[in-house]
Design goal:
- It is built from three helices and six strands, in the order αβββαβββα.
- By secondary structure, the chain is of the alpha+beta class.
Length: 131
């Protein structure tokens, strides 16, 4: 996450918020994220998939993304659900949700490859860069 944010210049204001809790106003729900990335009017809500349950993490994230959209009056909110190995990227717009799954690859020492880490960081950078 830090690497993806560091790809922006020092003049770019990107905040990494840890353990973000949101309470909806019009959406009668709450959201909890392990991390939230904020850049201008962009929000990337990040949830850790507990017990490697990506689908449960995705449900938690989508509800929280709706709360973030409600509170900040955003038409588009991004989300990431991860168990470190798998990375589900979400984009929620008014009436549709897009998702893309990616995974880290590992070398013979069971260390994530630089190429796969760059790919994930690049996707985070792209989400923060989208208009």
């Amino acid at each position: 996450l830090v690497y993806g944010c560091d790809l922006f210049g020092p003049d770019d204001s990107i905040k990494i918020v840890i353990e973000e809790d949101l309470n909806g106003l019009n959406v009668k729900a709450n959201g909890h994220f392990e991390f939230m990335l904020k850049r201008n009017n962009k929000r990337i809500c990040i949830v850790e998939a507990k017990k490697d349950d990506i689908l449960q993490g995705m449900a938690q994230n989508l509800v929280g993304m709706e709360v973030a959209s409600d509170l900040d009056e955003l038409d588009t909110v991004y989300g990431i659900v991860t168990n470190y190995l798998e990375w589900m990227f979400l984009k929620s717009q008014n009436d549709k949700v897009e998702k893309h799954l990616d995974s880290l690859t590992f070398d013979e020492f069971e260390v994530a490859t630089v190429e796969s880490l760059k790919r994930i960081a690049g996707k985070i950078y792209a989400l923060l860069s989208e208009d």
